[in-house]
Amino acid sequence: MKKIKVYITVMAVSVLALTSCKSKTTPLLGKSSIEDVIEAMTLEEKVALVVGTGLKFGDSIDKNSPFPIPNQPVPGSLAAKSKVYVSGAVGRTLEIPRLGVNTIEMVDGPAGVSFMSRSTAYPIGTALSSSWDVDLVHKIGECMGNETLEYGLDILLAPAINIHRNPLTGRNFEYFSEDPLLSGKMGAALVNGIQSQGAGTSLKHFVANNQETNRIEVDAIISERALREIYLKGFEIAIKESNPWTLMASYNSVNGNLATENYDLLTKVAREDWGYEGIIMSDWEAGKDPVKQMKTGLNLLMPGPYQDTVLLQAVKDKKLDEKVLDENISWILKGAMKVQKFKDYKYSNKPNLEENASIARSAAAQGMVLLKNENQALPLLDKGQNLALFGNGSYETIVGGSGSGFVMRAGPTVHIIEGLKNQNFNVSKSLEDTYTAYISENTPPTGMIDMTRGRKKRAPEMLLDEKLIQTMANESDLAIITIARISGETADRSIEGNFKLTEVELSNINNVSQAFHAKGKKVVVVLNIGGVIETASWKDLPDSILIAWQPGQEAGNSIADVLSGNVNPSGKLTASFPMKYEDEPSANNFPGTPADNPKHVIYEEGIYVGYRYYNTFGVETSYPFGFGLSYTNFSFGDLSLSSTEFKDELEASITVTNEGELSGKEVVQLYVSAPTGNLEKPVQELKAFAKTKNLAPKESQTITFKIDISSLTSFDAEESAWIAEAGQYIVKIGVSSEDIKAEKSFNLGKDRVVQKVNRALIPQVKINELSAKQ
Ligand code: BGC
Predict the structure, then answer these.
(1) DSSP labels for 104-144?
(2) Sequence-separated (6 or more) residues with CB below 8 Å from residue 31
(3) Is 721 helix (H, G, I), strand (E, B) or coil?
(4) Kind plus residue range of the DSSP H or E element containing 354
């Protein structure tokens, strides 16, 4: 009996000792479980961790800043004490050294590491996607990821994959396409490239941030079907194919709820339907109610730090369950363990900028789109000819858009004139002198903030007088006219003078074309633009039109590569160019009502965005989605399908042959026409694409695509399900959405419910949606 008593006492003492021992050892992230680390946090630490530490750019910047920096932490607070490791980062999370919790430092943005003044400015998103080359985009991701990592940063706030719903959207340059498949595939390629280097990404802006006008207050009212098929689809693809470390919820509302306070969007769709496993965070200062944000599934409020007191009070008042905080923190901690600071990576501060510049140069050339090339005006094989360069953009070439997507680059910009000189072209010195003097006399001064956001003021385009044009037509062999545009965050573009060419630009194109053509000389227009512009009214005038986009810091070199034929253009449009703005399916509903300060915007065009609209309703375009010429030409063999009856999968193969004299690449686009059943369908939708290798003259390549059941589905809102309807499907191989080279059909025997999802994001307002049904 005594023995047993002693035994029990010894047991009790050891248990006691063990428990008190446990409470004495402080858990450490990575060594202990996430639950233990969270349990060891004080409530103050918890509320400070779910909000960022504010806009601390680093001592040298903050102290010397000539303007007040907002979002500063309260002196002495946890956020104020949390260290800044890399100056210039645009936000970071709290570090809690006693628990081994490291900070996560974040930097913009989609065209390279922003704010560093020592990184590479890559081509804009639209330029990258116009390559239709996922391997190339992956490669650019590797370069960006490596720069992020080697500068000691953790997350690059990219890619931005919103849909080009309307050509006026100021940030379309950052985005990839009007098509969700292309957007999703490009997004996944960039994320996979960046993350392969050990740096993280932020897929943004989730979702329907398709305009800048009143982006904070506007409510995007969209049908469930259009949301799932168009606006969410790209995010779904990118999340499933690349698992970005973070997902950024946008400023706007979607169907009545702010994106950052939207349970349906964040929890039901992203977490439950798609199984997203990363940090869901807000765009910078997005949203109103931190408590609601925490409850609806937003894990991290960026950039902070002011919401912590509200959250603390809410927990104390029992308005916010501490468990909700814990759940959000667990996502942040899982994310923190992925980053280099957790792994103690010794970054070099020396990424290979020279190599990256040359990769940026080649990528830009791959994304350029040749819209027109008559009389073999291009390529400029004879380098001895004298070139007359017109347009401010020939001398001040635009590298990228403005706002957070702007990159302060390491090297100087290579303007078009320099690129051409670098390849030994003769460019008119007198015209160069005229333009240089004009630009310097007519450029208004730019303030410091605008300078750091890429909003350098520019001289208005010079109206060319007849005498100057005549002299140039006599002295030169060929004219190049550059039309330049820049747009960016917080403002959409205007129709007059931006989407449309200005009177001055039109008159310059007209007069130069007339004078040069009268002498039997050719005219090339280079479009140094970030998005769709009006082309129908003037495209007949020049011999050639090349869209160079905003090609990054190597701009002039890349453009000269294409003009000279060093690179054969193979880019294709990722958005339709309409005949006129009014033809755009969203034209009547952009930017919403009231127009000067829209509170809501109704997406009445529904699923008929871009080519889905133009093709289905037979509306003529100036240049269709998928279009782009080459200096060579390609032929297509027969399309073969592995079966005429669909079971689980189908293969489609086609052979492409280079029939011309120059080597080149072609983009093979696979569209599917689905039968109309219960659900109406667009005439066709892009379901796959591939780019050939560089084919030598007479060389062929066979491209094989796999078509799975998900390529046949449409979203049935009533059933909340993706459904493939029975009937005849047509596979079409095209070189644009309006130029189909081969087609074959197959049959699906029975309707199939491919995936049931949560009923979510139901519009609260009746939408008078466009329909193709009579
Ligand atoms: C932009 C984001 C950006 C963030 C941080 C926001 O205004 O919308 O794209 O990543 O600022 O700079």
Answers:
(1) -EEE--TTS-TT-SSB--PPPHHHHHTTT-HHHHHHHHHHH
(2) 100
(3) strand
(4) helix 353-367
Other Cβ atoms within 10 Å of 755 Cβ, number: 14
Residue 306 tokens, joined: 């002011």
Tokens of 294: 């925490």
What is the rounded CA–CA span in Å between residue 347 and residue 504?
A: 50
- Burial class of 502 by CB neighbour count within 10 A (0 to 12, 13 to 18, 19+): middle
Residue type, 257: N
- List the structure tokens of 497: 């003078």
Residue nearest to atom 11 of ligand 1 (CA): 284
- Name all domains of the chain by residue range, CATH numbers in brackets: 34-103+200-336 (3.20.20.300), 359-574 (3.40.50.1700), 629-756 (2.60.40.10)
pLDDT of amino acid 683: 98
Pick the atom of ligand 1 nearest to 108's CA.
Answer: 10
The answer to whether the CB of 654 falls within 8 A of the CB of 693 is: no
pLDDT at 67: 76
Question: So what's the pLDDT on residue 63?
Answer: 78
- Mean per-residue pLDDT pooled into runs of 10, the chain (774 residues): 44 44 78 98 98 87 79 93 92 98 96 89 98 98 98 98 98 98 99 98 98 97 98 98 98 98 98 98 98 98 97 98 98 98 96 97 98 96 94 97 89 93 97 98 90 90 98 98 97 97 98 98 98 98 98 98 98 98 98 95 98 98 99 98 97 98 98 96 98 98 98 98 98 98 98 98 97 87
| Residue whose CA lies nearest to ligand 1 atom number 7 | 284
Ligand 1: residue whose CA is nearest its atom 4 = 284
Q: Cα(113) to centroid of ligand 1, in Å?
A: 13
DSSP string for 236-278: HHHHHHH--SEEEE-SSEETTEEGGG-HIIIIIIIIIIT---S
CA of 232 relative to ligand 1 center, distance in Å:
20
**Tokens representing residue 375 in the block:** 């009389």
Mutate to test the pocket of ligand 1, among 174, 283, 452 (most ligand atoms within 8 A of CB): 283
In this prediction the pTM is 0.96
Residue 492, CA distances (Å) to 260, 531, 625 in order: 22, 11, 22
Residue 190 in contact with residue 158, Cβ under 8 Å? Answer: yes
Residue with tokens 């002495």: 76
